[in-house]
Amino acid sequence: MRRLGLKLAVLSLTAAFSFSTAHKAEARHRGVAHASAHGHASAHHASSRRLAYRYAGGHVIQCVAFAKSNSEIALRGNAADWWYHAAGVYARGASPEAGSVLNFRATRRMPLGHVAVVTDVVNSRTIVIDQSHWAQRGISRNVQVVDVSPSNDWSAVRVQLNGRSGTFGSIYPTYGFIYARAADGRDTMMASAAPASRRGATRSLPSALSHPFGSTEVAEAPAGADSLGVDAPDRNLR
């Protein structure tokens, strides 16, 4: 009888030890699985953030590629050369139209020029554009541009700063607008319209240029900063 009791006690201890070991193993498995899942989720979110940064930061879409994919105009080369390349292919002019491309000239801080897609014409002095690789380097939409040229020919413009209504940056020279239709022999070739690289120097603007509407607030560059550097980056790829 005593031997039977001893056997039962040994069996009870063995069962208890086995249960404890299995419970600990299961807990470890849950912990590893949780850590793995958490790590996978963290890696996924980090990857998503990196991908979002690539697109938001403008490291993927340059202004030329964006303009071609968001308009019916397909030209090659740097943005500063688009006006020249459009000759005889697309109509050009000095009046904005929705769907046209505003072609910026090259400047010291923007040696390869810039192109932006016109999405709306507000009035004879104000348009709305979509663009890529400007101040924020990524895609920016619904950006206002104002014409500050004395003749209202859109040869000199200011671009809205960082989506802030009523604030505009430095004066930038432009060639004009490239329209999404075939050239018909009547397109306007503006004065000195050859690309800056072919002329050897960029055109300087009269210092007296200012926006014709006195109510427009113009943002000033920080003291000691290059005013052109506030609006557009010094980029080498287009």
UniProtKB/TrEMBL annotation:
- Return the Gene3D superfamilies for the record: endopeptidase domain like (from Nostoc punctiforme)
- What keyword terms does UniProt attach to this protein? Signal
This one is known as: CHAP domain-containing protein
Q: What is the lineage of its organism?
A: Bacteria, Pseudomonadati, Pseudomonadota, Alphaproteobacteria, Acetobacterales
Q: Which residues form the signal peptide?
A: 1-24
Tell me which species this is from: Ameyamaea chiangmaiensis
Q: Where is this region: Disordered?
A: 194-238
* Segments forming domain Peptidase C51: 38-158
